Structures are given as structure tokens and as C-alpha cells.
Amino acid sequence: MSVPGTVVRDGLLEKRSSGLLQLWKKKRCVLTEEGLRLRSCRGGGGGGGGDAPSSAWSSKAKELLFERMDTVDCVEYKRGLVYFTVVMATGQEIDFRCPQDGTPWNAEIALALVRFKNLQALQASRKRHLHAAHLGSTGEDEEL
């Protein structure tokens, strides 16, 4: 499985587990034009950070695609960390946290999501416009 699209950001992010204890677990994350990919940081060889793409995106990688995402919500700043929630179209909420320094992940994800949704809206609008123009054509354009 290869990383699709252009990589917007690559690094570490903490995700709250959905289990009973709801522990914070570090994840290796890659933000692309299509969504966010998460992989567990367990078992990786410490020094290099796992630069090999084949090891980075095994079948265990979780993919949060923008087409299935609704919004990035619930931003809270506490003790140098930014807490935020990604809300999926199904209503599922996934909690994350990251350091406050630099550009926080929530801002990057929200901007990439807006770009994706805008592009989808433009494509849908163009499709409707072309379809309407084709249906409404009277043949007058052919004389020109």
C-alpha cells in the first residue's frame, strides 16, 4: 500500500484509544491531500523513524479519508498541548492531541479538509454545469 497524493505533513500525533481506559497512544501520521494515515509507533526501530514506505504503511495502517470526514472540532489548549476531535460522517469521534508549538496538527488537518471539500464542490458544480449545458443545447452553438 503506497501513500496516495502529495504529503502535506508527516510526524507524530497522539490518539486516544477507544478502549475502556482511553489511553493516549503515539501514532506516526501522514497528512495527504486525500486524508490522514495513522500507524502505531510500536515495534519501530528507534533512530530512523521508519522512513521506508513499505514498513510505514503496512496493512495495520488506519486511513481517515476526507471524503468520510465531517469536521475537525473541540479544540482545547491545556499544558502546552492542543486537544481536538475529528468527526467522521458516521458520527464517530476520534480524539487527538499534539504539542502547541509550531503549526498544530488540527489546523493542518482542518485546512486540508476544507481544500478537499472545496475541490469536491467545484468538481460537482462543473459536472452539473456541463450536464445542464449539454441537455439545454439547441444546436445554435454549432453554427458558430
Describe this structure in words.
This protein is an alpha+beta fold. The protein has one domain: PH-domain like. The protein is built from 2 helices and 7 strands. It has helices spanning 53-56, 105-136, and strands at 7-16, 24-32, 35-40, 62-65, 69-78, 81-88, 93-99.
Defining key terms:
single chain, 7-stranded antiparallel β-sheet, alpha+beta, 2 helices, PH-domain like, 144 residues, 7 strands
What is the secondary structure topology, with strand pairs?
Layout: E1 7-16, E2 24-32, E3 35-40, H1 53-56, E4 62-65, E5 69-78, E6 81-88, E7 93-99, H2 105-136
Antiparallel strand pairs: 1-2, 1-7, 2-3, 3-4, 5-6, 6-7
How would you sum up this structure in a few lines?
Helix content is 25%, strand content 38%.
